[in-house]
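Re: weekly structure request thread

Next one in the queue (203 aa):
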Amino acid sequence: MTRRAAIRVSNLIWLVCLSSLPAVGESNYCAFQIRVSSPAGNPLAEIPVVLGKQNKTTYSETATDSVGIARICDAPMEPVDLVVGLDLCGSVVVRSVKARWPKTQEVFVTYVKTYCDHMAVSQSSQVLLRVQDEMGLPVVGARFEGVLAGDSGSAMSDSLGRIFRVVKRNQRLEGRVTKAGRSSGPISLSVEDDVELKVVLKR
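Done, posted below.
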């Protein structure tokens, strides 16, 4: 091979190498790739994905494609949160994830489509009675005694001292919580919305 031919081959190799490099200003790196699927493992398309920080700052918004993948390429250096979901209610939050250039961080999310149906005005309300002793410890096996049309729920406190009642909105819940060997706790409550009430039964 002549010297001139060798130079031409060398130049050709350089051209091939240079052509394989990304063009100036071209961005190929994506910070996050989020795979969103249903509990059955099926990919979910058109699910919004938001990159933000503590529900205050939004850096980027996108949505999953036909195979359930969302890509967010530009991200700050600090840890951020990923919010996946169609609505505020039932959304999935992956907190404090960090970009790791040049590696794309893969995030896997199982998501159930849930909407804020509890925002609608219901005809009934839930009452949670937390039955405790003087030390604030749950009292197990305490019984709710009361009579109210349309009132339903559990009658005895569970292992966490909870009694759940369902009452028609704008009615009163009247009764008492009792347990042998302890003082009773009277209940007289106007129920306009879901409410939680502590009931102390002393020895």
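The chain has one helix and 14 strands. The chain has two domains: 32-110, 122-200.
Next request, please.
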